[in-house]
Design goal:
The complex is a heterodimer of chains A (229) and B (291).
Chain A: H1 2-14, H2 17-47, H3 51-65, H4 69-83, H5 92-121, H6 125-133, H7 138-153, H8 155-168, H9 181-191, H10 196-225
Helix pairs in contact in A: 2-3, 2-5, 3-5, 4-5, 5-7, 5-8, 6-7, 8-10, 9-10
Chain B: H1 11-41, H2 47-54, H3 56-92, H4 97-112, H5 115-129, H6 136-162, H7 166-174, H8 179-210, H9 221-232, H10 235-263
Helix pairs in contact in B: 3-4, 3-6, 3-8, 3-9, 4-6, 5-6, 6-8, 7-8, 8-10, 9-10
Classes of the chains: A mainly alpha (229), B mainly alpha (291).
């Protein structure tokens, strides 16, 4: 038992588990920020009355929502970096990090778009009709009546997308980001196979601890903000 | 154009929309032209690369065997996930506190753990401690997908039953069924019909996540595309082909889910919304009925 514990302590002094989670949180943060910007733009395009913008937005969402994230991340490394020689950072490892961020952002932007759009869809047509009936012009109706309700309605699906993004940030392993959790766990198990269950359990609990508060916060915010109908 | 934001356009709005339409189309075409010109200068539009990625040999020896493995893993995972989901969904609805709590812990745990982490763990576990398992990458892919998607389906079952009108369960009790019989013969059948669209959307998630098998050496479609590319030096072309195959399959499933969502709504007293295709399918708010 003492040997087991000693081996365990040595394992955790040798590998930086907290640092691995920090890499995933950073991947999630940057990819989430870009995905939010691109996804909002796509949502605006998809709800606009301009057919060419709608078609562009719909094509983007259909293509990237239905492509496996693993293919997108692999594409970033094998094609965007190797074949097209696009470099996002001078440092070798930072370059893989940013390639993974772009891959994650491209994929999740499609889901952010759909989350925002589903928020707009929770607003009943009667709200818009009432806004026009009291004489509000387009921008005022959008700003004062429709968009506030739409954002409240999209809290739950946006939180859901954020949780998925955090878990999906492990797919950066397919993009040579060697310091994130999935790769770190693999190396640790290979280095110390007799601690296999304990190592997996610690990484799994790390995600449980990160994911469940986001889920609770989303539900709480969404219950607080969403318009009761 | 039925949008809550926009009223029927008048003559001036119609002119503005036309201008926007032309500008938008020009911008989109310019973007596509720019991408094609970059690809051209990098030599990626070379017909040799595309032919090597699309000829009969590529399909026969790489994509089709890969696709069969992808579909095989997805099929096994779907059957297992539905069984797991119904079992644990019923567990979460149980009137026994211990059963309910245990099912809750299992479902919440597997929903929170990334599928890739699970897959790598199972693969290493099988190769180190269970070498008698024959196809270890395949088994790891299938079990990881069953545990995650089964937990998602368990939540679908639970919310499907919860969203049924109270009268359904009460009517069952009134005619003398016990709680277990009400669940099995009144509530579950309706909940299963109601969750069918979300279940089909979950198939999209299963198919996409099966590509994670590539990381643990499972020879599925993405891996086949990569192996082909390493011989021909055309990863852009082969990955594009693999992506297009996935997009067509998943788009077909999404269309089916939308169609089921409309056509089944009269068959059940539950809600029949399709899933988001990512994470928790229950997170999408339900659109008002009058649309």
């Amino acid at each position: 038992m003492d040997d087991y514990l000693a081996g365990f302590t040595e394992l955790f002094s040798r590998y930086d588990v907290v640092g691995a989670f920090w890499v995933n949180i950073q991947l999630t943060f940057w990819a989430g920020l870009i995905a939010l910007a691109v996804g909002t733009l796509l949502a605006l395009m998809r709800i606009s009355p301009v057919a060419s913008l709608r078609l562009t937005g719909t094509s983007y969402v259909t293509i990237f929502r239905n492509t496996p994230l693993t293919i997108i991340i692999t594409f970033m490394v094998l094609v965007v970096w190797t074949q097209l020689t696009v470099t996002l950072a001078p440092d070798f490892n930072a370059n893989f990090f940013w390639l993974a961020v772009v891959g994650l952002a491209v994929y999740h932007a499609a889901f952010v778009c759909e989350a925002i759009r589903s928020g707009v869809n929770t607003v009943p047509v009667g709200q818009a009709e009432a806004a026009r009936a009291i004489g509000l012009p387009f921008l005022a109706a959008a700003r004062l009546v429709i968009l506030p309700q739409a954002f409240r309605g999209s809290v739950a699906p946006l939180g859901n997308t954020l949780i998925a993004l955090l878990k999906n940030s492990t797919v950066a392993a397919a993009g040579s980001v060697a310091t994130e959790t999935a790769s770190t766990m693999k190396v640790m198990i290979e280095f110390s196979p007799n601690h296999l269950y304990a190592i997996f359990f610690i990484f799994a609990m790390g995600y449980v601890i990160l994911v469940i508060p986001i889920g609770l916060a989303t539900t709480w915010l969404s219950d607080r903000l969403a318009v009761k109908r | 154009m039925t949008s809550v934001l926009f009223d029927a356009p008048g003559p001036r709005a119609r002119r503005n929309i036309l201008v926007g339409n032309v500008l938008g189309a020009v911008a989109a075409l310019a973007l596509i032209a720019w991408i094609l010109s970059v690809l051209h200068t990098k030599g990626q539009l070379d017909s040799r690369l595309w032919i090597a990625a699309l000829d009969a040999r590529a399909w026969q020896h790489y994509y089709l065997p890969g696709l069969i493995n992808t579909l095989r893993a997805a099929a096994f995972a779907t059957v297992g996930a539905v069984a797991f989901g119904i079992l644990f969904g019923m567990g979460r609805l149980s009137h026994n506190v211990v059963v309910r709590a245990l099912s809750g812990v299992v479902v919440e745990f597997f929903r929170a753990v990334p599928v890739l982490l699970m897959m790598i763990f199972l693969w290493l576990l099988f190769s180190r401690q269970m070498p008698w398992i024959e196809d270890r990458p395949f088994t790891a892919v299938v079990i990881a997908l069953v545990l995650y998607n089964g937990s998602v389906i368990a939540e679908l079952v639970r919310s499907g039953v919860r969203n049924l009108p109270r009268g359904q369960g009460e009517a069952g009790l009134a005619i003398g069924l016990d709680r277990g019989q009400v669940l099995r013969s009144v509530q579950l059948p309706q909940a299963l019909v109601a969750m069918l669209p979300a279940l089909v959307s979950q198939l999209v998630v299963v198919l996409k996540d099966s590509a994670l098998g590539q990381i643990i050496t499972y020879p599925e479609l993405l891996r086949a595309a990569q192996v082909l590319a390493s011989g021909e030096q055309n990863p852009m072309q082969t990955l594009t082909v693999a992506a297009v195959v996935f997009i067509l399959l998943n788009y077909g499933l999404s269309v089916l889910a939308q169609w089921l969502s409309r056509s089944l709504s009269s068959r059940t007293s539950g809600r029949t919304a399709a899933g988001a295709g990512i994470g928790n399918p229950l997170a999408a708010p339900v659109a008002p009925a009058a649309r």
